[in-house]
């Protein structure tokens, strides 16, 4: 995999997580207190850095074959979950992901919650809401960076892709003070689910000791094949749903 492909894959995957985290922070800041929301965001970033710093070096001690088998299996789990939801949304069997609706729900819940602070935090609800959102989505970003970067032996490029994604999403989001509803997140999730599934299949197979014909070039066949299969399932489900409605 070239550095540009690695960068683009990590960028798109991390951008999806960044949009979800940003929606939560914006809801906490606009409906409660920006100061407490930003405090929660900062605390989450510190906790993430400590977690990655503690667990990161241990990954380097795992043999490459075992690492690829474990990471490939995890990527298959995550990728197939994302792809399943994307297929259901594309076929009309699941509601499309709506950042504006999610933002409205978060705002309503924040406005209904009680007020009160602890220590230097004036609004504990805004703090904890931002902290949990950023920390959980940040863990997924860290997982994407570590797995892709370690397996390709180019962690700096993976980190650069993640940082660029977070910076772009955060910059646009705070500039307009609104959720990024115009971002085609469902399309992005379909693409990311396809990539995670394809790489999971590729790396888990290599982790068992098998070799793909052509090495990394096999990804040029695996990725389109996974996308075509998922698109085919979406079309079949859509046709089945239309036939059922007509009947």
Automatic annotation (TrEMBL):
The keyword Transmembrane applies. The chain crosses the membrane at residues 37-59, 66-83, 155-176, 188-205, 217-237. The keyword Membrane applies. Keywords: Membrane, Transmembrane, Transmembrane helix. This is Uncharacterized membrane protein. It comes from Actinacidiphila bryophytorum.
């Amino acid at each position: 995999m070239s550095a540009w492909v690695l960068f683009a894959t990590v960028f798109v995957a991390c951008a999806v997580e960044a949009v979800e985290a940003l929606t939560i922070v914006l809801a906490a800041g606009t409906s409660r207190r920006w100061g407490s929301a930003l405090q929660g965001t900062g605390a989450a970033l510190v906790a993430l850095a400590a977690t990655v710093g503690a667990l990161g070096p241990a990954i380097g001690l795992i043999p490459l074959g075992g690492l690829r088998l474990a990471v490939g299996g995890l990527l298959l789990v995550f990728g197939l979950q994302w792809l399943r939801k994307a297929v259901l949304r594309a076929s009309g069997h699941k509601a499309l992901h709506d950042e504006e609706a999610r933002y409205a729900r978060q705002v309503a819940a924040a406005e209904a919650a009680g007020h009160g602070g602890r220590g230097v935090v004036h609004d504990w609800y805004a703090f904890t809401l931002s902290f949990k959102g950023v920390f959980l989505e940040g863990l997924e970003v860290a997982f994407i960076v570590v797995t892709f970067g370690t397996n390709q032996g180019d962690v700096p490029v993976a980190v650069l892709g993640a940082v660029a994604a977070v910076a772009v999403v955060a910059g646009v989001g705070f500039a307009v003070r609104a959720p990024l509803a115009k971002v085609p997140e469902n399309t992005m999730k379909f693409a990311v689910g396809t990539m995670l599934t394809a790489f999971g299949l590729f790396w888990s197979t290599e982790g068992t000791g098998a070799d793909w014909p052509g090495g990394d070039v096999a990804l040029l066949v695996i990725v389109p094949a996974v996308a075509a299969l998922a698109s085919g399932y979406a079309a079949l489900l859509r046709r089945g749903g239309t036939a059922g409605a007509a009947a």
